[in-house]
Design goal:
Layout lengths: L2 H24 L3 H6 L7 H35 L8 E5 L9 E2 L20 E5 L4 E2 L45 H13 L2 H6 L2 E6 L9 E8 L2 E9 L7 E3 L5 E3 L5 E3 L1 E7 L3 E2 L4 E2 L3 E4 L2 E2 L2 E2 L3 E4 L17 E3 L1 H14 L1 E5 L25 E5 L1 E6 L14
Parallel strand pairs: 2-4, 5-21, 17-18
Antiparallel strand pairs: 1-3, 5-6, 6-7, 8-9, 10-21, 11-14, 12-13, 14-17, 15-16, 19-20
Length: about 400
């Protein structure tokens, strides 16, 4: 037990005795009244008198003593039980360490004379770990801060095939490369009035094996009467050859040319192809049925070694993009282009048109359905002068 707590206990005992003595002095007949209770034969009045004496004792002696003790306890016992203190030494002759600071705001202390050749020290007990020297030299001025240009952000390197050829031009401008200009002009020439009116985003994919537009995807946004380029990405279409899938199915790995829409019921952030045992992240399947069955044609992210093959024919029939670009397109379509769109017509073989023919009602109006206002155009057009596009109409 510390010295402070021992003193507090002594004070507690003294305060109790003092409170009892003060109460007896203020009420001198309390003891006599209590002793006379049992001298009388009337027990009931005695008990009543005892109760009254108890209440008076509580109000005039016990309660004031308890309150006084509580105040004393708070004043003396709640202090931290610690003998630690910080000493501030003022010594002109002593060396200063790295924590010593000059403090011009302190009052000046008269320096007494030397005693036995030693200058006495003045010690102050403070609540902060700080030493103050009276004769330190003034601190040197702070060095002038040098300004440096902000470091350039570090960006993840991407392959030439994955990166866009140029940054998209601002909306309303026509600053396109010659290849981008050919892609836009070719797409614009293929669009009918119904297509322009009912779709807001147009995706052009060249499945050509060579040429300036080969294995590229161009994304255009309709703004007024203009088609403004949003993205120009490397892509991969089908390998265009007969193959056997990992499940043993014979297939011709081609990407069929034509005009398509997205199927609103088959949009998946994560998907796995059973036929080819391959992941298809950000898969957006086309709403295109052939002979009554929905096909597996889609735009999705390449995975595994196929990412390095972007820019050449490398898929089993779908359109591949890089993971980053596939996610960007998926989010753009899902967030901005949901709405009513015209449906393509279905012929007598229960096959949906991929040539741009829409279904009409009896009154001649377009048959509309919930979907995404995005039109995909896939062609074997390489962008060179004199090259022929696949006839769609």
């Amino acid at each position: 037990m510390s010295v402070l707590r021992k003193l507090a206990v002594c004070f507690l005992i003294s305060a109790s005795a003092f409170g009892l003595a003060a109460g007896l002095r203020a009420w001198p007949d309390a003891a006599d009244r209590a002793s006379n209770l049992f001298d009388k034969k009337a027990w009931r009045p005695g008990f009543v008198a005892l109760a009254e004496a108890s209440r008076e004792f509580e109000l005039r002696i016990w309660r004031p003593s308890v309150e006084a003790l509580a105040r004393a306890d708070r004043a003396f016992l709640d202090a931290p039980d610690s003998n630690a203190r910080v000493v501030v030494a003022l010594n002109a002759a002593g060396p200063a360490d790295g924590r010593t600071l000059a403090h011009p705001g302190l009052p000046k202390i008269a320096r007494p004379g030397l005693v036995d050749g030693v200058e006495p020290q003045v010690q102050l007990t403070l609540d902060v770990p700080l030493s103050i020297a009276s004769d330190l030299p003034s601190l040197p001025p702070a060095p002038k801060e040098e300004t440096h240009p902000a470091p350039k952000p570090v960006t993840k390197p991407v392959s030439a095939a994955e990166a866009p050829r140029v940054q998209p031009a601002p909306a309303g401008t026509t600053a396109l490369t010659p290849e981008q200009g050919r892609a836009r002009a070719h797409l614009a020439a293929m669009l009918t009035a119904d297509m322009r009116e009912n779709f807001g985003l147009f995706i052009f994919v060249s499945k050509s094996v060579s040429g300036p537009l080969a294995q590229r995807m161009y994304v255009f946004r309709k703004q007024g009467n203009d088609l403004n380029l949003v993205y120009d990405w490397a892509a991969s279409t089908g390998r265009e050859k007969s193959e056997v899938s990992p499940r043993g199915a014979h297939s011709f790995t081609a990407t069929p040319a034509g005009l398509y829409q997205f199927d609103p019921d088959r949009m998946y952030r994560a998907y796995h192809s059973y036929s080819w045992d391959q992941d298809m992240p950000y898969a957006m399947f086309f709403n295109w049925q052939r002979e009554g069955l929905q096909t597996g044609l889609a735009i999705h992210s390449a995975s595994g070694d196929d990412v390095a093959r972007l820019g050449q024919r490398a898929s089993a029939g779908c359109v591949h993009l890089s993971p980053e670009n596939a996610r960007t397109l998926f989010n753009l379509v899902k967030s901005e282009y949901r709405g009513q769109v015209p449906r393509f017509a279905i012929d007598g073989n229960d096959t949906m048109s991929s040539k741009g023919k829409f279904s009409h009602k009896a009154d001649g109006s377009l048959r509309m359905a919930e979907g995404y206002r995005v039109l995909i155009d896939i062609e074997d057009y390489n962008g060179t002068d004199g090259s022929d596009a696949v006839a769609l109409f």
